[in-house]
Amino acid sequence: MKYDIIIVGSGPGGYVAAIRAAQLGKRVALVERAEAGGVCLNWGCIPTKALLKSAQVYNYCTAAEHYGLALEGTVRPDLEKIVARSRGVAETMSKGVQFLLKKNGIELLHGFGRLTAPGRIDVDGIAYEADHIILATGARPREMPFMPVDGKHVITSRQALALTRLPQSMIVVGSGAIGSEFAWFYASLGVRVTIVEYLPRLMPLEDEEVSKAMERAFRKLRAAVLTSTTVKAVRVNAAGACEVEIEGKKGSETLTAETVLSAVGIQSNLEGIGLEELGVQIDRGKVLVDEYYRTNVPGVYAIGDIVPGPALAHVASAEGICCVEAICGLDPEPVDYSTIPSCIFTQPEVASVGMTEQQLQEKGMPYKVGRFPFTASGKATAAGDRDGFVKLLFGEDGKLLGAHMVGASVTEMLAEPTLARTLGATAHQIARTVHAHPTMNEAVMEAAEAAFGAAIHL
Predict the structure, then answer these.
(1) What's the CA gap between 132 and 327, in Å, rounded?
(2) Of 224, 249, 278, 356, which is most buried by a Cβ count within 10 Å?
């Protein structure tokens, strides 16, 4: 059977690309070996956020007295029901993707896709042809030899999404978005959590002030944070407990926990899809592509977690749209990787876009900093969410270079700084844009004012 475009992988890169291609009049097929929507909708972004929401509601209940409410009886987390709700949310979103595919006339081919020649692909023994084949096979949790995953004692994010009971203690190895979100979730529900991070700071890709603020937030949860610490080995002893041999600031020691969560990054799904046979160029575990995601093999493209760049769902979607529009001759603007927003859904949340202060210093770029603490925000104070701040970085010309935020709902606030950076907006323009009162978003306006010495606390 012949199509205009076949896309392998139905995650946020694949299904968005498929829909855009169908909108542009192409005959499209989408190959998926598991659930429609890929890892993000089924075992990543969406079900994780459902878990986090349950934990947030639980925290509100335990703090009810602070809001003038009296609760009778004991509020306790029911992990089985929390997980069931999360799985229900994922299933709903997956069905939504299937509806969109059907609505746009996209054929969903169930099975494992493998390139057999330029323009040809095998899906579980059935051959298909297309003028263009886009690979969007995504990634999976990375496994390290010193920390063998057994799915019971040593787990990845996949198992962490569906535990049947709360462990008494958990060691989380890695403090990126995945590690931090699960650490916050389980610590919020009463699990004794220890975070082990190899680099000197928690959330090492974030601005240093953000890292310090989040380390304080985790300590308030009674979670231990060990930075500059290497995991040497993980073993399961005769009693079924995990022994984690580490080396850190205090030297070598062994930690013990009921469960270890490995959150040390992801690995691209490149095996068995025919890349070597076709001679598709790969470097350091990533498929090499140009600005329109063309590989060195004509008619073969790659997007998302299998190409260089941030492994984020919204990045994969943007790449998919750019790739398809280029195939269709629309001459799209290449994705601007300097304006990619990043979010971590702990409480408080973390949101950022653009350069950090440390990156500006390393490049020797002059800049001004504008900060606004949520302790000075009327909306944050009324909501009881005063932790955190907005930090904006501006160049000599006043244009926004970076935005870094910690606080309640800052992931929703991030769109404004992202748009400002994309459009080259200045501190003056941001500060003179009238923001609704009282809102958390006023902090962006105030931080822009503060960069030039004119902040007015709410």
Answers:
(1) 8
(2) 356
- DSSP characters for 209-250? HHHHHHHHHHHHTT-EEE-S-EEEEEEE-TTS-EEEEEEETT
Taking CA atoms, 348 is separated from 18, 104, 309, 344, in Å, by 35, 39, 26, 9
Catalytic residue positions, numbered: 437
The token pair that represents 195 in the structure block: 């975070």
What local confidence, expressed as pLDDT, does residue 454 receive? 62
In 326-360, which positions are buried (b, 16+ CB within 10 angstroms) versus exposed (e)?
A: bbbeeebeebeeebbbbbbbbbbbbbbbbbbbeeb
Predicted local distance difference test score (pLDDT) of residue 453: 77
User: With DSSP H G I counted as helix, E B as strand and the rest as coil, what are the percentages for the chain, rounded to 5?
Assistant: 35, 25, 40
Residues of the chain with pLDDT under 50: 456-458
Distance CA 365, CA 361 (A): 6
Tell me if 327 sits within 8 A of 160, measured CB to CB: no
Question: How far is the C-alpha of 71 from the C-alpha of 63, rounded, in Å?
Answer: 10
Instruction: Identify residue 187 by its one-letter amino acid code.
Output: A
The encoded tokens of residue 277 equal 């046979």
Per-residue pLDDT, 405:
98
- In 3D space, the residue among 434, 435, 428 whose CA is nearest the CA of residue 453 turns out to be 428
CA angle 143, 144, 149 (to 5 degrees): 55
Indicate the length of the chain as a whole number: 458
| Count of Cβ atoms closer than 10 Å to residue 56 Cβ | 16
Which amino acid does the sequence have at 357? E
- Domains defined for the chain, CATH in brackets: 2-141+267-337 (3.50.50.60), 154-264 (3.50.50.60), 348-450 (3.30.390.30)
Ramachandran quadrant class, 353 (left: phi over 0; alpha: psi -120 to 50; beta: rest): beta
* Reduced 3-state DSSP string for 355-410: CCHHHHHHHCCCCEEEEEEHHHCHHHHHHCCCCCEEEEEECCCCEEEEEEEEECCH
127 bridge partner residues? 122
